[in-house]
Amino acid sequence: NAGVTQTPKFQVLKTGQSMTLQCAQDMNHEYMSWYRQDPGMGLRLIHYSVGAGITDQGEVPNGYNVSRSTTEDFPLRLLSAAPSQTSVYFCASTREQGSQPQHFGDGTRLSIL
Amino acid sequence: GQQVMQIPQYQHVQEGEDFTTYCNSSTTLSNIQWYKQRPGGHPVFLIQLVKSGEVKKQKRLTFQFGEAKKNSSLHITATQTTDVGTYFCAGPVDGQNFVFGPGTRLSVLP
């Protein structure tokens, strides 16, 4: 069982570039989410999805898009990268929103120059 | 503003000393979860507390949920170097999505 798989693990972008962070889970979890982690601020929710075809905004959604065409995949798109988006990004999944443990991927360390 | 707070932000202890981190929510929580993140790693689920006043133990770790279900604590007895990392609490502040505290970073000096 792979759990939650994120790619790439590291990425360096120039300001204005776009890219997609990939996330896949093999646990048949309906609920998936994206967080960013910055020093001293814990994990902040960017976007989440309660099932295929359904997405919603979290605490810090600006500059990011998501889609959920299948239960397994939940990619995060940076539309036009900015230095403020330099962060570590974690994808997570859980069986039930708000009441079950979340399973995290290994993270993507993203630097915007 | 921050809806889930944790103190302290950092804690340095000598191996064998005890350690406690405290978590406070601005709202009553239906449950609270604790996660551990090793340096360079990802958060790993430790435990979930649901009942008012609940106390759960995992070997040297003791977790407590307050009577009002707005605060929680994690206590580690006789710390070891393997306990190094950042400990996060998280609660479904809006009833749905978990909000994470800023974490307490623990370093253990051998």
Topology of this protein?
The complex is a heterodimer of chains A (113) and B (110).
Chain A: E1 4-7, E2 10-13, E3 19-25, E4 31-37, E5 43-51, E6 54-57, E7 64-66, E8 76-78, E9 87-94, E10 103-104, E11 108-112
Parallel strand pairs in A: 2-11
Antiparallel strand pairs in A: 1-3, 3-8, 4-5, 4-9, 5-6, 7-8, 9-10, 9-11
Chain B: E1 4-7, E2 10-14, E3 19-25, E4 32-37, E5 44-49, E6 55-58, E7 61-65, E8 71-76, E9 85-91, E10 99-100, E11 104-109
Parallel strand pairs in B: 2-11
Antiparallel strand pairs in B: 1-3, 3-8, 4-5, 4-9, 6-7, 7-8, 9-10, 9-11
Task: Describe the 3D structure.
The complex is a heterodimer of chains A (113) and B (110). By secondary structure, chain A is an all-beta fold. Chain A has strands at 4-7, 10-13, 19-25, 31-37, 43-51, 54-57, 64-66, 76-78, 87-94, 103-104, 108-112. In chain A, strands 2, 4, 5, 6, 9, 10 and 11 form a 7-stranded mixed β-sheet that branches. Chain A has a 4-stranded antiparallel β-sheet with strand order 1-3-8-7, with no helix packed on it. In chain A, strand 9 and strand 10 form a beta hairpin. Chain A is globular and about 35 Å long. Chain B has 110 residues and is mainly beta. Helix content of chain B is 0%, strand content 53%. In chain B, the strands form 2 sheets. In chain B, strands 2, 4, 5, 9, 10 and 11 form a 6-stranded mixed β-sheet that branches. In chain B, strands 1-3-8-7-6 form a 5-stranded antiparallel β-sheet, with no helix packed on it. The radius of gyration of chain B is 13 Å and the shape is globular. At the A-B interface, strand 5 and strand 10 of A face strand 5 and strand 10 of B.
Query: Uncertain runs of chain A with pLDDT below 50, 5 residues or more?
Result: none
Instruction: Quote the average pLDDT of chain B.
Output: 95
Give a count of the beta strands of chain A, DSSP E runs of length 2 or more.
Answer: 11
What structural class results from the helix and strand content of chain B?
Answer: mainly beta
Rg for CA atoms of chain A: 13 Å
